């Protein structure tokens, strides 16, 4: 059973200290999100708002101490926090939510999905809160950071380790696509997290994608759109297979140390490159035939030509290094930056 946590930012965080002084609620049907967390409310509770109280097994706001900021982006920050009594670490994502009510309702549903997601290859979401225009999401803490962080230290990742990493990412995508019927929509190195146990997990599906698409990030060209498939970047109808294009770009970037497309001055130049130019490919003189074939299967221009996550999991590239007994735990802890919480 995952713990049920009630969290917020500590009062000494001056920049957002007023978070604790006012409350608010947004809901969709019987789904309610406020300072006491996300929950399903009964008809009697809806009729009598005073009946809506935090559950007895939830911890108080004061039970989490902020350690440090470990990430910024998408209109908010991510803090490392520690539970005072157990010493357990969590990541607390705090997002400013100044968007219209219809988007808030959509986010409420996405938060509900996040809380119900239980998969070894997806970052655990423990609880969500809404207060004074801020959403706080308590997440599993992955002490290795993201693949983006890891790449800054190692520059490139050898094929044998990429195969082991990719297996876990594909299993996460299979769960999202076929168990939860979710399109991630924002798969990129910063949304693939690692830890000292060698675990690789997908994060930031749902809520962050909604917020990014609702906050004008296309105009600021922050990189949110870099990994989009041709059908997504042109605004056409898209499905689960659009995540596979993103996976191909991520794996190619990890292998070569460079984003597959040259830097562009604007979103529209990137769009033109993705739509008009040939798909990126792995240099055949630097990588195995199997790896080149895997990348090609992911980055087909036509969505119908791409392979599903289930099919890709059986690709020869993912099994060609099995006899090496790859140890990702050792690789992540020795090749990357030191895994420290302070």
In words, what does this structure look like?
By secondary structure, the chain is α+β, with helices and mostly antiparallel strands. The protein is built from 13 helices and 10 strands. The protein has helices at 43-47, 101-116, 147-154, 159-179, 207-214, 217-220, 230-233, 242-256, 267-276, 289-298, 309-312, 316-319, 328-335, and strands at residues 26-28, 31-34, 37-40, 64-73, 76-83, 89-96, 125-131, 134-140, 192-194, 200-202. A 5-stranded antiparallel sheet has the order 4-5-6-8-7. Strands 1-2-3 form a 3-stranded antiparallel sheet, covered by helices on one side. It has a two-stranded antiparallel ribbon with strand order 9-10. Strand 5 (76-83) and strand 6 form a beta hairpin. Helix 2 (101-116) runs antiparallel to helix 5 (207-214), helix 4 (159-179) runs antiparallel to helix 8 and helix 8 (242-256) packs antiparallel against helix 10. The chain is globular, with a radius of gyration of 21 Å. The model is unreliable at 1-23, 43-57 and 215-223 (pLDDT under 50).
Show unreliable segments. Answer: 1-23, 43-57, 215-223
Q: Separation of termini?
A: 28 Å
User: Strand order across the biggest sheet?
Assistant: 4-5-6-8-7
Q: What's the helical proportion of residues?
A: 25-40%
Described by the principal axes of the CA atoms, the overall outline is globular
List the helices and strands and how they pair.
Elements: E1 26-28, E2 31-34, E3 37-40, H1 43-47, E4 64-73, E5 76-83, E6 89-96, H2 101-116, E7 125-131, E8 134-140, H3 147-154, H4 159-179, E9 192-194, E10 200-202, H5 207-214, H6 217-220, H7 230-233, H8 242-256, H9 267-276, H10 289-298, H11 309-312, H12 316-319, H13 328-335
Antiparallel strand pairs: 1-2, 2-3, 4-5, 5-6, 6-8, 7-8, 9-10
